[in-house]
Design a protein that fits this description.
heterodimer; A: mainly beta; 16-stranded antiparallel beta barrel; two-stranded antiparallel sheet; B: mainly alpha; Cytochrome Bc1 Complex, Chain D, domain 2; elongated
Chain lengths: 382, 91
């Protein structure tokens, strides 16, 4: 009898243990499933879109500028993060598709994040933080900013970045090494000799561009940020006549955003200056009839923009507090002696109406050189 | 010609900033002592309008905050406090 009872107890214990094991396994499986679902839910498709109407009031009345930029964000684990933006734009009947950025980040510790891939250039603040149409307060970019401008807009390489609090202030930094820009010698595109080509997936000279940006936010409310950026690169093709040509880019930027009581609203000031120096080189003269004549020039370019926006956000009348006025002044300075030389300045005045926090209708008057334009844009993020 | 315009524009911008800073007074609170709600509002408005917490789920905010930490080089403490605030506001 004792043996039977003992046997029953052993069998029951084994059953209970097995059941518990099964339950634990099922629980583990469920938790794994939940974790898996959780990692899937840390995937976000977002982005922005814009429709722009442009007219000069005389001959041109375009309604065909449509932009759609989906952004994919994914955080597969606590320290790993992936982001990518595809930029599609229908402009004057042509469809442009580009990979704005696609990079993976690894958060090493509180103060250092490693990033690799194609990332927006931390060169000033415009391209990195303000270029998206639902953020940009005017329908256009300032003169010389954006793609093919003076200064890099995105880089392919690796970067270390982070933010560090220092008492009531904080600093942010990024340093990177990338394929860097390449020199346009004008052989294939006469008139563009001496300009730089950016966003190069292939290296042309076994040399990496190095650069970085340091931002200082002196006030604890983060209202003011002053930044300085620099990039140095060899830009000529290896073993060519331009082997030793180098470029030095630098940028200074300012951002100030604050609610101001006596103005009953929000003041937003942004400014940036980019400078680009390319060392001297001899280029084929595009106007020489023999096609062999050479010329050179002091290859220094710069662009500047300053923008002030005001929104009476502290007013009690809802309709009025959604309006925003913007003024921007920008300048493009080209080198003296270059064949295609025309310094240009632009003023832009805008009136925006914010339908929601992420949807805006912008109306702007823009005068570039002597040309006047009127623009209407609807932009939203999703 | 350009130089004059730049100087005038810079002076105007400088005046606006200086008057705003004086009007607000110099804040000397350590960043580490600021609350999540405050940090959330201050950091978003540096570039764009501040979104309401309920437009995204907690998991989505976790992803977005990392995106912003990388993009705007926000500090680790700021990011964690902002996320904590948003999650509490979303309950």
């Amino acid at each position: 009898m004792k043996k039977i009872i003992s046997l029953l107890l052993i069998v029951t214990s084994i059953n209970i243990a097995t059941a518990q094991q099964y339950n634990n396994a099922a629980k583990d499986s469920m938790q794994a499933q939940q974790k898996s679902n959780s990692s899937l839910s840390r995937f976000l498709l977002t982005g922005y879109t814009a429709l722009t109407v442009e007219t000069d009031g005389k001959e041109k009345f375009n309604m065909g500028q449509v932009q759609f930029s989906p952004i994919l964000l994914w955080k597969p684990s606590k320290n790993i993060f992936f982001e990518a933006e595809l930029e599609t734009e229908l402009n004057a009947g042509a469809l442009d598709i580009g990979l704005e950025y696609a990079d993976i980040s690894y958060i090493i510790n509180k103060y250092i994040t490693l990033r690799a891939g194609k990332f927006l250039a931390p060169f000033g603040i415009y391209q990195d933080r303000l270029h998206a149409s639902w953020i940009n307060k005017l329908p256009t970019a300032p003169l010389g900013f954006g793609h093919d401008g003076v200064g890099t807009s995105s880089e392919i390489g690796i970067a270390l970045s982070g933010g560090i609090p220092i008492g009531p202030s904080k600093i942010n930094y990024i340093i990177y090494a990338s394929n860097g820009p390449q020199l346009n010698t004008g052989k294939e595109e006469p008139g563009e000799e001496g300009m730089l080509m950016y966003e190069n997936a292939l290296d042309n000279n076994f040399n990496k561009a190095v650069g970085g940006r340091l931002g200082i936010l002196p006030f604890s409310n983060s209202s003011l940020e002053l930044g300085g950026s620099v990039q140095y690169a060899k830009v000529g093709d290896k073993a060519s006549d331009y082997d030793k040509v180098t470029s030095l880019m630098y940028s200074f930027d300012l951002s100030f955003t604050q609610q101001v009581g006596f103005l009953k609203g929000m003041i937003d000031v942004k400014a940036q200056m980019n400078g680009l120096n390319v060392s001297k080189a001899d280029y084929i003269d595009p106007y020489d009839s023999t096609g062999t004549g050479l010329y050179t020039y002091d290859n220094k370019r710069s662009i500047i923009f300053g923008q002030v926006a005001y929104r009476p956000s502290m007013l009690k009348i809802k309709v009025l507090k959604n309006f925003e006025g913007v003024f921007r002044y920008s300048i493009l300075n080209l080198p003296e002696g270059v064949k295609e030389n025309e310094d240009v300045s632009q003023i832009a005045l805008g009136l925006n109406y914010w339908i929601t926090w992420r949807s805006v209708i912008k109306f702007a008057y823009q005068k570039t050189g002597g040309k006047e334009n009127y623009l209407l844009q609807f932009a939203t993020s999703f | 010609m350009y130089m004059k315009k730049i100087i005038i524009t810079s002076l105007m911008i400088g005046l606006i900033i200086a008057s705003s800073v004086l009007q607000q007074g110099c804040t000397v609170t350590k960043i580490t002592e600021r609350g999540g709600a405050q940090l959330w509002s201050e950091n978003c408005t540096r570039c764009h309008s501040t979104p309401p917490p309920n437009v995204y789920s907690d998991e989505q905010w976790d992803v977005i905050s990392t995106h912003m930490r990388v993009r705007a080089a926000m500090t680790n403490d700021e990011t964690e406090k902002i996320i904590e605030f948003i999650k509490s506001a979303n309950k």
